Amino acid sequence: NFAERSEEQVSGAKVIAQALKTQDVEYIFGIVGIPVTEIAIAAQQLGIKYIGMRNEQAACYAASAIGYLTSRPGVCLVVSGPGLIHALGGMANANMNCWPLLVIGGSSERNQETMGAFQEFPQVEACRLYTKFSARPSSIEAIPFVIEKAVRSSIYGRPGACYVDIPADFVNLQVNVNSIKYMERCMSPPISMAETSAVCTAASVIRNAKQPLLIIGKGAAYAHAEESIKKLVEQYKLPFLPTPMGKGVVPDNHPYCVGAARSRALQFADVIVLFGARLNWILHFGLPPRYQPDVKFIQKPSFVHGHPDMELLSKWRSNRAMFLELFSKCGSLGQAHQHHLRNLLEMHISGPYARPIKIKNSEVDSYSLWFIKPRIYQVDICAEELGNNVKPAVTLLGNIHAVTKQLLEELDKTPWQYPPESKWWKTLREKMKSNEAASKELASKKSLPMNYYTVFYHVQEQLPRDCFVVSEGANTMDIGRTVLQNYLPRHRLDAGTFGTMGVGLGFAIAAAVVAKDRSPGQWIICVEGDSAFGFSGMEVETICRYNLPIILLVVNNNGIYQGFDTDTWKEMLKFQDATAVVPPMCLLPNSHYEQVMTAFGGKGYFVQTPEELQKSLRQSLADTTKPSLINIMIEPQATRKAQDFHWLTRSNM
Ligand code: ADP
Ligand code: MG
Q1: Element (H, E) at 40
Q2: pLDDT of residue 577
Q3: Quick check: helix, strand or coil at residue 14?
Q4: Ligand 2 centroid vs 67 CA: distance in angstroms?
Q5: Ligand having the closest approach to the CA of 554
Q6: Distance CA 33, CA 36 (A)
Q7: Which of 20, 360, 557, 648 has the fewest Cβ atoms within 10 Å of its own Cβ atom?
Q8: What is the Cα–Cα distance from 70 to 515, expressed in whole angstroms?
Q9: Cα(441)–Cα(454) distance, rounded to whole angstroms?
Q10: Helix, strand, or coil here: 559?
Q11: How buried is residue 546: exposed, middle or buried, by Cβ count under 10 Å (0-12/13-18/19+)?
Q12: Span from the CA of 245 to the centroid of ligand 1 (angstroms)
């Protein structure tokens, strides 16, 4: 047999590249250097796209976004020691977001281990905390096996980050080609479905809900569940609320989207179905005060030996009107008592589960309160997630798309739809109207410098419907999210579960390379706060080097949260050293970030008025030959619109 007798040699670098190619890896992001340069070259020779970045952290963010957008892991290739350490931020972010990612790190030579080798670091151990799987192949022959396992682990079950360590001496080591066996491409994850009885219960509770709410998370986007979820929403006329990256699974402008009444919807829903969204800080843990628990007022006589009369209670429990009436009574109590009641709410039900309490209050003395949380239904692929923070009424463990189809099948058995004329819809619609009006009013303000709302309304007017929106920053991201619309799934990328600043440019670069390959002509609009932009600003060179279809909008308020205008700044520095007086939130006023873009041949605009903003955005969108950066000066002290509740002002959600 000729093949067996072949003397042909192959390098470790080529084996790695071939193993990645066999696993369908399409994109590698990284920074080359000793000992990984040869790996990048070998990968490119096999047709894998290599995007060289300026910092491993941004490279790792980019690779992780590939995982979210394509369902197969992107690779981040880094050098040993500090290179790998820079990538940890990206790994942590991917793992927190439940996005697949494969990091390949060069490491010091095996025969110098523990001797203080160049960039020596315990990399496999270091990565364990940030990954689902972290390993070093024991030989070159083992590389294809370990890479297949890493790719598989990154996409099976709850997606996440994986790490493969490559000692420097592997890279140029030559082995006989025939000694290497490549694993087959690992298949897409098997589809799991929920228990039939759980599906039946879920369907019946949705049917009986008085104030239902579907919450669509980025897990639903990742699961490509858009078709089934849209059908569920439309067929049964159910209100839905997307999480930040759940936006676009069903378009934001859909008549059943209640995003503009977010707080109201969360607060009063009695049945909540979560599709791929965790009850973490983004959803306020599923706990009061952001979720109004079922508050039942019970008259004193209904207490038997200090315990509520269960029979009467169940009558009251089912009487939503009673609750509303009594809550409105609280409304007439005046500020102090309302505050008192709210505190009680917060105090007594912020634990893991609701419990009954009695309220002694002069004006509501004849009542006691009974708290019952809204019934929450979780649809998730990760069993360990079910029951976090709130005891779910039903758990549907499985792939979201498949489970939603099961639900549809069950609901289809009996004709039904949620009444469009219900009080709940009326409440939500009214709240949406007033919230939208309040934002529009702020947007129409003619004063200069502009406020956030003015900026985002003008941007929204021109945004192409199919563009990707990448965003990070504090107010920039939060306010931007409420105004900028998503019409397509997986077209919004932001600071995410980990609230990471610095992800924007890496995400935009990843979206751009994917868009170029799969849907040419799409723009990536990257909306950055001036502070957020600073974290990975040098990636503008990467954007220009590959000439990517990205428009960067830097919403510039001269600082973190807030900044100062030039005059105040000058005044402040008159007599003292800057480090003694400049508030920690301040950045240099009137910084010309657009020049970062022009430095590399892209187009830069410095804008101060709505007209300049409109014009520069129009020009940027019209010129498909170059990326642009529009530096938008806003009022340094601009904030969010007034919020209904005190806790809304302090939370950044
Ligand atoms: P969000 O930030 O939008 O609230 P999270 O990241 O908190 O979303 O939640 C996403 C959830 O989706 C995770 O708990 C994850 O386990 C789950 N998930 C991811 N992929 C799938 C899938 N294919 N089917 C079901 N659940 C999934
Ligand atoms: Mg800022």
Answers
A1: helix 37-45
A2: 86
A3: helix
A4: 29
A5: 2
A6: 6
A7: 360
A8: 11
A9: 9
A10: strand
A11: middle
A12: 11
Q: Which amino acid is at 304?
A: V
Reported as a single tens digit per residue, the pLDDT across 357-415 is 444 443 333 344 444 456 889 999 999 999 998 888 899 999 999 999 999 999 999 99
**Burial, 40: exposed, middle or buried (Cβ in 10 Å; 0-12, 13-18, 19+)?**
buried
Q: Which of 95, 193, 222, 249 to mutate to test the pocket of ligand 1 (most atoms within 8 A of CB)?
A: 222
Query: What one-letter code names the amino acid at 535?
Result: F
Residue type, 319: N
Task: Write the DSSP assignment of 251-294 as a string of letters.
Answer: -TT-TTB-GGGHHHHHHH-SEEEEES--SSGGGGGG-TTTS--E
Ligand 2 midpoint to CA 509 (Å): 22
261 exposure class (CB count in 10 Å sphere: 0-12, 13-18, 19+): buried
The more confidently predicted of residues 230 and 300 is: 230
What's the pTM? 0.89
Residue 526 Cα to ligand 2 midpoint, Å, equals: 15
Q: Which residue has the tokens 């991201």?
A: 477
Ligand 1 pocket, mutate which of 95, 99, 278 (most atoms under 8 A from CB): 278
CB of 158 shorter than 6 A to ligand 1: yes
**C-beta 493 within 6 A of ligand 1:** no
Distance (Å) of CA 147 to CA 17, 141, 346, 437, 636: 10, 11, 49, 53, 49
What is the predicted ipTM? Answer: 0.96
Q: What distance in Å separates the CA atoms of residue 493 and residue 170, rounded to the nearest whole number?
A: 36
Burial of 545 (0-12, 13-18, 19+ CB in 10 A): middle
User: Distance (Å, rounded) from C-alpha 209 to C-alpha 203?
Assistant: 10
In terms of DSSP bridges, do strands 303-304 and 307-308 run parallel, antiparallel, or are they unpaired? antiparallel
Coil, helix or strand at residue 167: strand
The pair of structure tokens assigned to 273 is 């179905």
Residue located nearest, by CA, to atom 21 of ligand 1: 219
**How many H helices and E strands in the chain?**
27, 23
Query: Which of ligand 1's atoms lies nearest the C-alpha of 158?
Result: 16
Give per-residue pLDDT as tens, 166-208: 999 999 999 999 999 999 999 999 999 999 999 999 999 899 8
Burial 66-92 (b: 16+ CB within 10 A, else e): bbbbbbbbbbbbbbbbebbbbbbbbbb
Q: Burial of 534 by CB count in 10 Å (0-12 exposed, 13-18 middle, 19+ buried)? A: middle
> For a pocket test of ligand 1, which of 69, 158, 240 has the largest count of ligand atoms closer than 8 A to its C-beta?
158
Distance 189 CA to ligand 1 centre (A): 15
Residues 6 or more apart whose CB falls under 8 angstroms from that of 384 comprise none
Ligand 1, atom nearest to 385 Cα: 14
Beta partners for residue 559, in sequence order: 586
